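As promised in the previous annual report, we have extended the structural survey to additional targets. Below is the entry for HTH marR-type domain-containing protein.
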Amino acid sequence: MSVNLDQELMRAHLDLFRAMKHEMKPSSSITNLTLVQLNALIFLGDRRDAHVSDVANYFGIAIPTATVLLDRLTSLGLVQRVPDKTDRRVIGVVLTKKGEKLLSKAMKERENMFKKVFAKLSTKDKNDFLRIMRHIAQN
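The corresponding structure token record, generated without further manual editing, is:
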């Protein structure tokens, strides 16, 4: 029985993420963060003016769930809440120096992981893969 192309793509996708997850385990043990917590730090590192609702929207989660996520990162000393300068009802969320340092370390680890995962690909294959991923993400 032949497998159709969609099923092959699905299996290849799962295999790719399995390989990447395997390579990421050492990185997560260095930071002691979950993947969601690390992604929250990345999001906050990219946006200097984030609010709890921005985090919730980015992850597609409810605001109370985002609050719990940020509470955990706050208790670890990685983020802090700051009052909005124009609206006292709004609370911003920013990385602390400790959060910035940990994020920098984690990003270096993540870059090494990606290099390792994609080391077997030629430059052309990497460029093709990048083009395809961007095309999928934009549509």
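The helical segments are 5-31, 35-46, 52-59, 63-75, 97-118, 123-138. The first strand starts at residue 50 and ends at 51. These points will be discussed at the next consortium meeting with the crystallography subgroup.
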